[in-house]
Structures are given as structure tokens and as C-alpha cells.
Predict the structure.
Amino acid sequence: MEMSLEKIGTRLKKGELIIYPTDTVYGVGGVLKEDTLKKIYEAKTRSFSSPLIALVNSLDKVDEIAIISDEHREKINKLIERFWPGGLTIILKKRENVPAIMVSNGETVGVRMPNHKLALDIIESAGGILATTSANISGEATPSSFVEISPIFKERVDIVIDGGKCPIGTASTIIDMSKSKISILREGSISKEEIENIIGKI
């Protein structure tokens, strides 16, 4: 990597955007500031009605932005123990410090810890949390390797990191644990069956 993590962190904290590899697919990310988040939506030509998720580098960071309900705490802890770091995004009630634009004015936020050393180092350099979504213009295929990212999209961000191919190459599974009824919103790299093996029938 040509740029040091310290330099990347400094630039991200100033509000710049980064394309970077994760375990699942390539992401475009920025810090949790309204102006930075707006730039992510503009780069993707994405509707503000589609929320971004938060990638974290440690469990402590989850508590900074989300509330784990007592009702599902045991199940959430089991899922985190089994599937984090990895391809599971957990939807939780958001804390007040999460900008409304990031979650489409909703009450919840998706959180994930990627199983990818470079991604975790980049997230840590920015303060431990990066608002992230897939590194593509809305409607394009989601890139699982650097060569699949469109040149036009690369030009719309400030920092571009070539990490080759993503090890999993499939988007994360999204599970909503913010309500009494648990539901899987997207089945991705982790199957419903694998989740039910850990927390029982959904």
C-alpha cells in the first residue's frame, strides 16, 4: 500500500472518501459526519432512502452508535461470538449521535465487523467506525475485486486502495435484531440455517 495508515486516517477524518477492500466486497466509506455521508450518496448516485451501514474495528465501537436490547442481548452476543469478524450485518436501534442522513431518518443502524486485516486497520485509522456501502454506482454490479470497480466511480472518491480480490466475494447477510421479531433482510455470505443453528428458529 503506497499511503501510510496514518495519512489515510488523517485524510478520512477531514471528510475524504475511500474505496477499500473488505472480506465480502469492496466498500466506499467515510466518517460519520453529515457532509461526508452526503458525498457517499452523491458518488454512488444513490437515493437517500437507502441507509449506509457502519463498519467497526472493535466491539466497543458498537456501543458508541447502537443500543443492544436486553430482549435479544444473549442472541446478539452469540451471533457476534460466532460470526464476527465476518459477513454478518446486525441491525440495531441507533444512538442519537448517528446522523439521520446515514440511516434514511430511521431509528436503526446496521453494524458489522469485517474479517479483513487491511479493512480493520483502515477503519481504526479513521477512529474505529466507517459508514460504508458497496463501491459501485447504484445499479451496477457489486465489485468483489479491484478490477471490477468502475473507473468512473474511482474518480468520484479521494483515496483508492487496491487490495486485490475480496476473500468472500459475496455481500454480507443482514439480520434485523432491533424489534421483538427477528428477521433476515438479506441472505448473503451466511445462510439462514447457519444463523438458526446458533440462535434457534427465526
